[in-house]
Amino acid sequence: MPLPRLSREAVRRIAIDVAVLTAFGLIVALLGPWGSVGLSWPVRLSYWLACMIGGGLIGIFLDETLGRRIAPTWRRVLAITVLMTPPVTVYVLMTAWLIQGEFWGWRALLELSWQVATLCLPIMVLRALVWRAPRVETRTIVEPPLPEAEAAFRRRLSARRRQARLIAIEADDHYLKVHTDAGEELLTLRLRDALADLSRAHGYQVHRSWWVAADAIREVRWRRGSGEVRLEGDLIAPLSRTYAPVLREAGWLG
To answer: Structure pTM?
Structure first.
């Protein structure tokens, strides 16, 4: 079976991850913790590079496969550190046997696991900082076509609110509640039809019954598998797990 081809972005991320792990391994080799300073430099360097790169890649694999389901970032870092510690501990034990020619015995696993966790945590923290998306708002990039993009939907509003600032749309039974800075208005319209009207507008669907304008967002909070979006006018919209990745890509979630 042919191996799947990696995209250029995936290769770039792997190269950066390996470079960070290599730098971390060099620093630890220079420090020589837990008695390794007594080893010869070639053995010490080989041992710590193998431990940092190999163990780090185990953690990165767990982070990319399981960590995506965990939010926020720092809870994810702690969870992956706990998950990676047992397999990395076994890996370090085998690495010491192969490189140093010394098998410490399986009884050493418990003590060794604390040393491994001590190094796994800063590695995952450093990786989280490297790949953490900056919180940036990109409305200015798409601002010129906004009036035209919202025009079809605005024609459905009353004259009083047609020129008002659009904040959010909320599905309410058989109606849509349109939130603007000139007050609320009810429309007899399905949410999917409103989303079709606003397909080119700068906003996000954050819940099965909510759409919010991007420039109305003030804060996004995520906790225990659900979240909320705080908007202009003290309005709060729910954020579901299904639509959270959209805001994460926009930089609102770490």
So the answer is: 0.50
Q: What angle, 0 to 180 degrees and rounded to 10, lies between the N-to-C axes of helices 8-31 and 41-65?
A: 140
pLDDT in tens, 142-157: 344 455 778 888 889 9
Joined tokens for residue 58: 């185990």
| Eight-state DSSP code of residue 143 | -
**What is the DSSP annotation of 39-83?**
S-HHHHHHHHHHHHHHHHHHHHHHHHHTGGGS-SHHHHHHHHHHH
CA–CA separation, 60 and 14 (whole Å): 9
Q: Sign of dihedral through CA atoms 73, 78, 83, 89? A: positive
Q: How far apart are the first and last CA of the chain?
A: 36
**How many other C-beta atoms lie within 10 A of the C-beta of residue 71?**
20
Collapsing DSSP to helix, strand or coil, 161 comes out as coil
Q: What is the pLDDT of residues 90-106, one digit of tens each?
A: 898 888 888 877 767 77
Tell me the domains of the chain and their CATH numbers.
8-131 (no CATH), 139-249 (2.40.50.1020)
